[in-house]
């Protein structure tokens, strides 16, 4: 008997998991099936983070020993410093992500601080958690100019995906993101 098609199930906090049939009537997360089929699958990924924060989005990957982050972009200095402490082997850019992408697209190899910029082909996994305050139902000011600007940063993340064309990307958003008008 051939296992059925993959299915999506709701996870905690409104997240969703893609499940792959592992045997008839049995499902497990798709990423786990990929790792079983090729144990080096995840270990070969070269990840990069846009809107990295202190690194919590990828911490589970790190704890599982699946990857080590090579590059991260975080403008707020205290958070960038925390990311550096949590990921000592990473290059952390404390600049506007749009300006960094513009530099790379112009053919620059380093930024103004002399840090090597990731080039096309360097990024296999792109993780990002663009600011979500403008999408939050708890934000009663989500139609103001500043919230609209923050909402536009999702497009910045997608621009990174479009330019680098990573094999995989992980975008973290709040529940209202998909239904926001």
UniProtKB/TrEMBL annotation:
Gene3D superfamilies membership: Vaccinia Virus protein VP39
Active site per UniProt: 132
SUPFAM superfamilies: S-adenosyl-L-methionine-dependent methyltransferases
EC code(s) of this entry: 2.1.1.37
Top-level EC class as recorded in UniProt: transferase
One Pfam family cited in the UniProt record for this chain: DNA_methylase
InterPro entries reported in the protein's UniProt record: C5-Methyltransferase, C5_DNA_meth_AS, C5_MeTfrase, SAM-dependent_MTases_sf
Keyword entries, A-Z: Methyltransferase, S-adenosyl-L-methionine, Transferase
The family this protein is said to belong to: Belongs to the class I-like SAM-binding methyltransferase superfamily. C5-methyltransferase family.
Protein name in the entry: DNA (cytosine-5-)-methyltransferase
Lineage: Eukaryota, Metazoa, Chordata, Craniata, Vertebrata
């Amino acid at each position: 008997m051939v296992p059925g098609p993959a299915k999506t199930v709701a996870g905690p906090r409104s997240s969703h998991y893609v499940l792959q049939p592992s045997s008839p009537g049995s499902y497990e997360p798709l990423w786990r099936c990929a790792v079983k089929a090729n144990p080096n699958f995840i270990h070969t990924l070269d990840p990069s983070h846009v809107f990295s924060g202190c690194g919590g989005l990828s911490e589970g990957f790190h704890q599982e020993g699946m990857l080590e982050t090579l590059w991260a972009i975080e403008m707020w200095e205290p958070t960038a410093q925390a990311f550096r402490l949590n990921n000592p082997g990473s290059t952390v850019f404390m600049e506007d992500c749009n300006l960094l992408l513009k530099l790379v697209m112009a053919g620059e190899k380093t930024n103004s601080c002399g840090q090597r910029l990731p080039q096309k082909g360097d990024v296999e996994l792109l993780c990002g958690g663009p600011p979500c305050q403008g999408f939050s139902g708890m934000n009663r000011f989500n139609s103001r100019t500043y919230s609209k600007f923050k909402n536009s940063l999702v497009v910045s993340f997608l621009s990174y995906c479009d330019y680098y064309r990573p094999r995989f990307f992980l975008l973290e958003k709040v529940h209202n993101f998909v239904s926001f008008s």
